[in-house]
Every structure is written in structure tokens, then in C-alpha cells.
Amino acid sequence: MSDPVSIVPRPQSVIGHDGEWLGTKPWETLRARLDDSLGANEYLLSVTSSTITLRAGSESALADGKNTFAQIIDGAEAGVEKESGLTRYRIPCLEIRDQPKYAWRGLMIDVARHFVPLDQLKKMASAMALHRLNVLHLHLTDDQGWRIEIDGYPRLTEVGAWREQTMTGRYLGEETPEGEISYTSHGHGGFYTQDELREFVSYAAELGITVVPEIDLPGHMQAAIAAYPSLGNNPDTQLKVRETWGISKHVLGTGDAAFNFVRDVLEQVCDIFPGPYVHIGGDECPTDEWEASPEAQRRLREWGLERTREIQGRFTQHAADVLRKYGKRLVGWDELLEAHLPDDALIVTWRPDHSVAEATARRFQSIVADSNRLYFDHAQGGRREPLSIGGKTTLKDVYTYDPVPAELPAEERALILGVQGQLWSEYITTSEQLEYMAFPRVCALAEIAWGSPRVSYREFLRRLRPHLQRLERRGINYRPLS
Ligand code: ACM
Predict the structure, then answer these.
(1) Whole-model pTM?
(2) With a 6 A CB cut-off, is 338 part of the ligand 1 pocket?
(3) Which of 56, 205, 230, 294 is the most exposed, having the fewest neighbouring CB atoms within 10 Å of its CB?
């Protein structure tokens, strides 16, 4: 074969045999099995003129191989056989032996700022599988919306999942006078029932994707506090679900109600999501309310702690205790490093100035989610791009990004488990827009995640063009190349 069959496997790992073609019913013919002579993340897909075999070192590698095979079929010449009515494909004989550079190849979707309907989530999962991404991080809760049904707390979804209006235009910070912000004339909201989430988790698992749920705590909790004021620091104040972007100062209070709430929610989350990870957020948690609250300060003394920030540490510790009981590993944003946290926490580093080097120097395993290069809510070009949160991250910025800082010693490099793109949805209001912001940057992310040799940006674009037609055939929107 002269062309690599896929945008993801390394070009040199594709060994084809020119001229030999196979007419068959590929899915029926595929023989897939685990083979422990292969590396844990490795698969070997072999198409000869008589058989198609797939062997892999693990279930997740098996899923990668199946997804590669699906992609080959997707691009194949097909015809319907008259007598049987079956579709026959012509696919090249080939052998692909491949394994990803990173075990965690992630995409985060923020369903809190704007709700993403279940069918669209499934479409995104399927598009991830096409790119052999294997972790879908679902940002389920935030100041502007709570999206997961929790038994015993009906107001989370009756009240916390809905806001009366949403600001339009760019957010200029806390100091912006209220009168200068304009709003939509309609409300926004939605949530997933537990059954819907279970259905989604199984759908994703079939594609080889682990869903990592995030309950962002103890900050980014205004929607929950609007539903249950007793969870906050000022139980007598009725808040609204937040209607502007930015960071709310309203965070969980330090009473038993808040700690019991965290336990109850995480227990149900552990039950709904069978994967090994639960993300507890931890980012951008202002301490203003804790500083001002006599109750919070009393608790701090009772715990024998001095720094107010350590209240966050108590929440992290509490969440870790709950998750441990369910055999889950705690994941959180890099702010977790600023207070007490468990040694086995998995850190998602997003702030460029608090880079992954800080986490790995302290021996924490990490996922790189750098906001300069992997935030897909930023614009993809100059003028004419749709309104976005601000910042610019072009396709080339993503493609040329090396997530591992050059100066990192080898033993610290080994602590980087993966990379992840972020689709924050303040300015992503529709499914078309979600796809537009994701693609083709997700294609470049997949190349980084798989460790494909970065030959040149031009070479990538040459392979990307036919790949974009593949997206088009699947009805996936994308930003056209410049
Ligand atoms: C984040 O962007 N607040 C993780």
C-alpha cells in the first residue's frame, strides 16, 4: 500500500501488499482474540486473501484494533451482492501492528454550561473511537447547571439543572456591572437520568471508551447550592443557578450537610460508572466565603489546620475515602496540589504555569490538558471564527504540541499517562458547534496521543484531507482547513 490506511497508526507500521484484494463480509470474517505474547496495549491486525485476524494484548487494545478495522471498512469500496443482499467490501491485504504512546487518550466534554443531548454524546463517542481516543471525561456539574440525577436530592435536577437565562457576548469578569451584560430571552437546561447514563456508559464501552464522570467540588457548585442552600456557606441566602460565565465565589460549606452530600453523590456516581476513575474537579475554588465564615473558621481550628485552603484538602480527603471504598481512583485538576491530597491521585494539569513538571516532580501520575494547546473552546483562527471564550489554538498549534516538557527526567516522563483535549461549552450551544470546535483538532490530538511520528504539518494535512471526507460521510461537522 502506498498510503497509510488510517490517520492514526504510524505510517511505517502499515505493511500492505499491493494488488491483492479481498472480497468478503469483513465483520463476519474477523477473528479477534487476546494474545499475551503481544504488549498490553498492542494489537496486530492481519488481512490476507483468505482470513482477517485481530490479536491484542488486552481488551482495550482489542477495541483499538476493531476501531482500526472499522475505519478500513468505512473507506472501502462496497457493493451489494444480488443473490444474498449482503454488502461486500474490497479491502487491501495488510498487516498493522500498533500500540499507542499513551494509555489515556482523552476528550473532555462540558455538558454543564450547555447540556449535550444523549444522542449527540453517543455521536461524539463514536467519533472518538474513529480516532482511537479511549477516555471520555464528562464534566457533569458546574455553577451553571447540574446534569446528573441523584436519588435523595431531587432538587438537583428539578432546580439545579435549569437556568432562567444565559449571558450572551464575552464575559469580562466579576467586575463587569450587571447592567452591561445582556442575556438570552429563554432559559436553558437538561439532565441525564441514571438509566440514561448507564446506557451511555455501555454504548461507550462497546467502542472501547471509558467514561470518567466529573463532579466538580468544592467550588463550581453554585447550581447545587441553588437547589439546596444548606450545602453552602450562607444557608439563609437563596442563590440562582449562575447565568454568567466565570468563577462563582459560592462554594460548598463546611457543615455535615455538605460532606454527607459529597459522600451520597459520589457513592451513586461510583455505582453508575463502572470505570476505574472518578474525577472530583477541584479547580478554581475561591476561599472568600470560608475566610468570611465563622463556622468555616471554627471547623478549620477543630481540624487542627491553619490555611483556609486546607478546607479544600478536607473535601479531597473525604472524596478519596469514599472512592477508595468502591475501588475507584481519584482524578482531579492540578489545583488539588495546593492542599492535602492522596498519593495516588491522578492529576490533570491544565494551567501552563503550573505545568505537568510540578505534578511529576512530586511523583503524581498526570494527564496533560494544557490550556494553551489542548483547550478546544478557543478559536481556531483569526477573524470570522464564531464567538468563543477567547484565546486562539489553531490546528497547527495542536499538531505541533509536545505534551512532555523537554527538561523532564525519564522517570518523571513515565508518570505522564496521557493527554486530553477540552471542550468547555460556555460558547458551544449546539451539536454542530460542538463538532466544529472539536474537529479537526481532535484528529491532531489523536496523532499526539498515539505518538505518530510528526513528519511535518504538511504531511499531516495530506493525510487529513481524505480523513475529513470520512467525517463528512458520518455527518460530523468540522472547521474547514484554512
Ligand atoms: C479549568 O479550566 N478550570 C480546569
Answers:
(1) 0.93
(2) no
(3) 294
